[in-house]
């Protein structure tokens, strides 16, 4: 079980991701706004921060900078869609989301959390 910060811009995907990760046994906190992300980082020690696939690249980079500054020990997982590439070259891991691979997210989060920073 790991502590996961779930971020992004599209509320239905944030909720779906939260449910998927909680079902896999992770503790998940979802935050979308910059101030909420910073506050969550100051309050909790996250193992993994997931940055959602629907966020535009400038938003992903802003979230990335906030997380690196305030959640320094967390691994950052950038989710991408099949029609977009990586936006965060310095992320710890990337995962292209495919509807036909429902367990890929849980597996990648568990793997990152077990590696340590």
Provide a count of the helices.
4
Q: What strand order characterises the main sheet?
A: 2-1-3-4-5
Share of helix, binned: 40-55%
What's the CATH architecture?
A: 3-Layer(aba) Sandwich
SSE pattern: EHEHEHEEH
| Overall structural domain count | 1
Please give a structural write-up:
The protein has 117 residues and is of the alpha/beta class. The chain has a single domain (3-115), classed as Response regulator (Rossmann fold, 3-Layer(aba) Sandwich), CATH 3.40.50.2300. It is 42% helix and 20% strand. It has helices at 11-23, 34-43, 57-70, 104-115; strands at 3-7, 27-30, 48-51, 75-80, 93-96. Helix 3 links the parallel strand 3 (48-51) and strand 4. The model has no long low-confidence stretch (mean pLDDT 93).
Describe how the helices and strands are arranged:
Layout: E1 3-7, H1 11-23, E2 27-30, H2 34-43, E3 48-51, H3 57-70, E4 75-80, E5 93-96, H4 104-115
Parallel strand pairs: 1-2, 1-3, 3-4, 4-5
Features:
alpha/beta; 117 residues; five-stranded parallel β-sheet; 4 helices; 5 strands; Rossmann fold; 42% helix
Summarize this structure briefly:
The protein has 117 residues and is an alpha/beta fold.
